[in-house]
Amino acid sequence: MSRIGVYVCHCGENIAGAVDVEEVRKYAETLPGVVVARDYLFMCSDPGQELIKQDIRDGLVDRVVVAACTPRTHEPIFRKAVENGGLNKYFFEMANIRDQDSWPHWHDREGATAKAKKLVASAVAKVALLEPLEDRYVDVTRSSLVIGGGVAGMFAALDLANMGYKVYLVEKNPSIGGNMAKLDKTFPTNDCSACILTPIMVQVGTHPNIELLTYSEVESVEGSIGNFKVKVRKKQTYVDWDRCTGCGDCVEACPARVPNEFNEGMDKRKAIYIEFPQAVPKRAVLDIEHCINCAKRAIGTEPRIHSKTGEPILAPCEKACKTGACDRSKPYNPDGEIMELSVGTIIVATGYKVMDKTPFKEYSPQSPNVITAMQLERILSATGPTEGELRRPSDGEKPRTIVFISCVGSRDKNHHTYCSKVCCMYMLKEARLIKEKYPNINIYIFFIDVRTAGKDFEEYYNYCRGLGIKMIRGRVGAVDELAGDRLRVRAYDVDLGVPVELEADLVVLATAIEPAPGLEELGRKLGITCGSEGFMKELHTKLYPVETPVKGIYIAGCAQGPKDIPESVSQARAASSAAAVPLAMGRVLVEPLISEVDQEKCSGCGICVPLCPYLAISMVEYREKPLSRINEALCAGCGVCAAACPSGAITLHGYTSAQIHAQIEALTAGIGGGANV
Amino acid sequence: MSSAQAASLVINLTDSEPGFADEIKELGGEELLECIQCAKCAAACPMVLAGFSFFNKRIIQAILLGLREVLLDDSSIWACQSCNRCTEVCPREVNPFEIIQAMRRVAVREFALPTMSIEGLKSLYDTGHAVYLAGAGNTRAKVGLPEKPPSTVAYPEALKELQAIMRKTALADLGIIPMNGFGVADTCEV
Ligand SMILES: Cc1cc2nc3c(=O)[nH]c(=O)nc-3n(C[C@H](O)[C@H](O)[C@H](O)COP(=O)(O)OP(=O)(O)OC[C@H]3O[C@@H](n4cnc5c(N)ncnc54)[C@H](O)[C@@H]3O)c2cc1C
Ligand code: SF4
Ligand code: SF4
Ligand code: SF4
Ligand code: SF4
């Protein structure tokens, strides 16, 4: 018979404020196998842990239950205490009477106390049946994968590379740089975005430890911390990048025009194109969907021969290319190439996309003079469609009155309920850049709240007000098109308490920041679910802000939620150091809480194989019979297979059927229409 | 409410005066653009309690938006009690009271001032008191005070000095008080 010790924690007032701790303690003493039950103000404190250790040393107890907070943060602490006391650390069970009891039932002392008793009884029932388990370690592949080459991904990659680890940087676009590459100047210091970003891009592009995989996407991820196997698809560029020098001659020659994504659709690029002038790597890609196959030069076909000259008839791009990189006769595989990478840790830095204007019918999105703030960034940028000249899209005239509308699609139940966090500041920035250059342009910013909570941001805001930028509290209700390409803006000035309207030449919508397209799918490949807003969820908002529920996978930048550059960079550098820890340690602990197949019981039905989300199960031939086998390194201990096996052949250590049944029985004792009532 | 009436409630910012804020700054409201519309001044202002439609915060927002005509059509600015509470409490050192003074300067230049104020200014020029009770002499004597208070009323030289100062102000340019140093009552007509 085991000798169980139960330790009930007050957690200051967190538990004791809603649960009668003494009653729970007394009740615990009555449970089968319990030899001692104590309570303490903070069980996780040194003296609290000492209570447990002393009872073990005194030979009083050989199983331990702590009724306290969440095992997510505190289980490791108590396991350690149990181990230091001299027991196998898996002879321990936690009852969460705080997060699952006192907090949600704060105003029901009686109910909360009754529930605490049940939770304790259930933990006691389980702990009696626990078996000793041994920790294992696996060696770590000392390399990392960073997904997304925006400013966050680049900094994460650079840090890891500078620490001496091999880094693969996968970026879906032809060039790294991300959204920051599109910005003109950047708050709060107004330095030119390209000027501060280009050197970083070049460092990333030339770092000996970084393998840049642009125009690539992650296909699949297998394995676990320390040993991930990642398949990456290098999309087909139809240009030989080993030869391409990025001279742009093919681009010049190409006649096919396509809306230019980099300039937010405000001008055209060619079918063969270089993403932007500072692109890294500076290489051309062919957008095969929009290529019109000039001179009937479909990819992978031999050129026709000119009847008179006897020369091959080439497409303009090929003809222009001096290096032979643009050879259309090659039999390119449209699916590109699959690369297999082995990495120890992964950082997700896939960033964001801004909402398009079309859903906002009340703001006349059909008007070319209603634009998004990202489009204005491109208009202000020297590499943009107007080469930095402030001109309105409809007729190229310089606007005299500009209206900014905040929170478009943010703080809005029809779209996104969250605050996009950066728009207040970038609206002020864009308004300021314009006002400093053209003091006579009238600028109005309509806002709900001005949120400028960052270092030096309030000063920035006050400076902008000082420039005479007119701030009006009140969400714009309507933008109507008027003759002469003008727009009528209607709103209610909350400060004056009157409806106002005005005519503008350009209306700028601060549209919401959304997760990058495909983030949810990427999450599925990685085994991480996104939060309700679609961004990747961190493990713990305060304590583990760059970790995810999957060990070895970290997040940084706007993939986790809207944020500005300073924050994205700080988070990237935090993620890189977190991701470096397992690489530096060289081996990682694998908890023995994993599943095992009893080959005597396995019928070979194979039901478990497709159910495992970590692809850890395979069928192996054993005495001429297929039997299921679980790869220890891959198993995450989720228990899906154990629950599904019709033969009861799979045991999840630490959560055996007997243990779980004992818990359920303890929890349901006295409930329902059965004999117990 | 008819739609015509409703439409007239709407303030059209396109008709606003872009240079209005600068004008107010030049006339003494230097810190105008520092205002962040927090409304702390309004919370301290007796004009708000008395129900005036434009008071410190609202006057400032109207100026920031260039609503010169709107403010000239309203007499609230003359209701400021000069108590200076707003200036005391403003967290951004805007000095709202000075802005109201500046707005009054604008209004005076446009003759957009109520008759009461003209009377007051005239009386100030004539007697040195904005409000002077001419028949108060007897009452004063009854309670043992000198018939004339010890002010410009008792000291004609002081009144002359005051009048000289006032003639140097825009009030004289505007004809609200006489331009030259002649007698008082015969020239003062507004
Ligand atoms: C109009 C506007 C103006 C702004 N102005 C400022 C400013 O002045 N100052 C400031 O501090 N902040 C500003 N910001 C915010 C700033 O843009 C972001 O903080 C910053 O770009 C975030 O960087 P990131 O690396 O997290 O994301 P991103 O820049 O979005 O980079 C993500 C990268 O990941 C790639 N990617 C996405 N999905 C995948 C995938 N599945 N596989 C591979 N790659 C993928 C993308 O192609 C992209 O290159 C502004 C934002 C907007 C909208
Ligand atoms: S064949 Fe070459 S030049 Fe012609 S559209 Fe395609 S990429 Fe452009
Ligand atoms: S940052 Fe400002 S504009 Fe953007 S959603 Fe938040 S409050 Fe609205
Ligand atoms: S004047 Fe000062 S107190 Fe009044 S609203 Fe402006 S900032 Fe606030
Ligand atoms: S000085 Fe005028 S505006 Fe300021 S609080 Fe007093 S009455 Fe109001």
UniProtKB/TrEMBL annotation, chain A:
Keywords for this protein: 4Fe-4S, FAD, Flavoprotein, Iron, Iron-sulfur, Metal-binding, Methanogenesis, Oxidoreductase
Keyword Iron-sulfur: yes
Residue intervals of the 4Fe-4S ferredoxin-type domain: 235-265, 593-622, 626-655
Keyword match 4Fe-4S: yes
GO process terms (BP): methanogenesis
Superkingdom: Bacteria
Cofactor list: FAD
Any single Pfam family the record assigns to this protein: Fer4_7
UniProt cross-references to Gene3D superfamilies, sorted A to Z: 3.30.70.20, NAD(P)-binding Rossmann-like Domain
Stored SUPFAM superfamilies: 4Fe-4S ferredoxins, FAD/NAD(P)-binding domain
Any GO molecular function: metal ion binding
InterPro entries per the UniProt record, alphabetical: 4Fe4S_Fe-S-bd, 4Fe4S_Fe_S_CS, FAD/NAD-bd_sf, HdrA-like
Family: Belongs to the HdrA family.
Name of this protein: Heterodisulfide reductase subunit A
Protein source organism: Desulfofundulus thermosubterraneus DSM 16057
TrEMBL record, chain B:
UniProt entry tagged with the keyword 4Fe-4S: yes
GO MF: 4 iron, 4 sulfur cluster binding; metal ion binding; oxidoreductase activity
Key words, A-Z: 4Fe-4S, Iron, Iron-sulfur, Metal-binding, Oxidoreductase
Tagged with keyword Iron-sulfur: yes
InterPro entries attached to this UniProt entry: 4Fe4S_Fe-S-bd, 4Fe4S_Fe_S_CS, HdrC_iron-sulfur_subunit, Helical_ferredxn
Pfam families tied to this protein: Fer4_8
Cited SUPFAM superfamilies: alpha-helical ferredoxin
Protein's UniProt name: CoB--CoM heterodisulfide reductase subunit C
Originating species: Desulfofundulus thermosubterraneus DSM 16057
Lineage of producing organism: Bacteria, Bacillati, Bacillota, Clostridia, Eubacteriales
